[in-house]
């Protein structure tokens, strides 16, 4: 029986060998990283090594990396009213694009009346003119824009948005969770004031994330209070093993990035060409710059739930979009925001590649699509 093919890397990734080794080694430690004895100092060393690794990878200072339990918690921590904006006054409202992750669309600690949504284009890219309109004449805002969309893979004009936001006296939070390890990302180059990351998207374990803040950022209020961990930004004993594995995954991912990105882009293009040739598949956001590993497609009459199950029965793991909906297959809010009819949104299937994806995996996926096409697309 042939082995299964995993093409759902945007949902989560396998644990990298380097991360597994770091995690196992850290589990052998018995010290609390806040303790001053030798055991505690060794645990602290593992945490600080990972902190420095992530900081270097994204252009930050280690003291500005805050470890969390997930990317969702990192986003929630970032969405804090009262931080001091570029104008000197506190941010009083939140603006997020309509294609953001659910943890950003939830609004963090901003009251609902103080939030607004930025439109996106048909290609799934933020409408910068609408951003300017929303910022004009209002109080300082925290703007949250993802670096790359988790469903379409579309890259967002983060640097351009940062200039607009800063000119209006606000702050920019970038959900960078899908970008790290797939494209080059530096908080200084894009102008991010805050940036969120997640370990399990780059080969680290689930249950670890990080928020990186810019130097001198003032007014960030912790969600969890108690101990003084993470420079009083996030209380609770650090997940030493998970954090150590996160650091190892970041290091491995960044070392392999140039080669992996080129190889995945080649495989992605081959996959898309094959999908188009079979049953008239349509690729979303194909005319804009995207992640090298992501394909979101549909075809006339396609139902996502049926397609996901059918691929699964053929031994191939794919998804209908975001995995953060309690396992439910439902219409994509991303495609709805892009202006697509609900019937189209209900037929979107996502295939996402990773560092171990091979040409044979693409062949298997196309063979399955060819086999399933006629039966899936019947009225």
Structure described in brief:
With 379 residues, the protein is of the alpha/beta class.
Care to describe what's here?
By secondary structure, the protein is of the alpha/beta class. It has 2 domains: 5-14 and 257-376, Alpha-Beta Complex (Aspartate Aminotransferase, domain 1), CATH 3.90.1150; 17-251, Aspartate Aminotransferase, domain 2 (3-Layer(aba) Sandwich). It has 13 helices and 12 strands. The chain has helices at residues 17-27, 38-58, 71-78, 102-105, 128-135, 158-167, 187-190, 229-232, 240-277, 304-313, 333-337, 342-345, 359-376; strands at 5-6, 65-68, 93-97, 115-118, 141-146, 171-175, 194-198, 209-213, 282-283, 294-298, 316-317, 349-352. Strands 2-8-7-6-5-3-4 form a 7-stranded mixed sheet, with helices on both faces. A 3-stranded antiparallel sheet has the order 9-10-12. The chain has a two-stranded parallel sheet with strand order 1-11. α7 (187-190) links the parallel β6 and β7. α2 runs parallel beside α9 and α9 (240-277) crosses α13 (359-376). The model has no long low-confidence stretch (mean pLDDT 94).
In CATH's first tier, which class of the largest domain applies? Alpha Beta
Instruction: Encode the helix/strand succession as letters.
Output: EHHEHEHEHEHEHEEHHEEHEHHEH
Uncertain segments of ≥5 residues (pLDDT<50)? Answer: none
Give the strand tally: 12
Oligomer: single chain
* Gross morphology: globular
Separation of termini? 32 Å
Please work out how many helical segments DSSP would assign: 13
Q: In what range is the share of β-strand residues?
A: 5-15%
Rg is 21 Å
Q: CATH homologous superfamily of the largest domain?
A: Type I PLP-dependent aspartate aminotransferase-like (Major domain)
Mean pLDDT: 94
Describe the main β-sheet briefly.
7 strands, mixed
Indicate how many domains the architecture comprises: 2
SSE class = alpha/beta
Q: What is the CATH third-level topology name of the largest domain?
A: Aspartate Aminotransferase, domain 2
Helix content: 25-40%
Strand order of the largest sheet: 2-8-7-6-5-3-4
Q: What CATH architecture of the largest domain do you see?
A: 3-Layer(aba) Sandwich
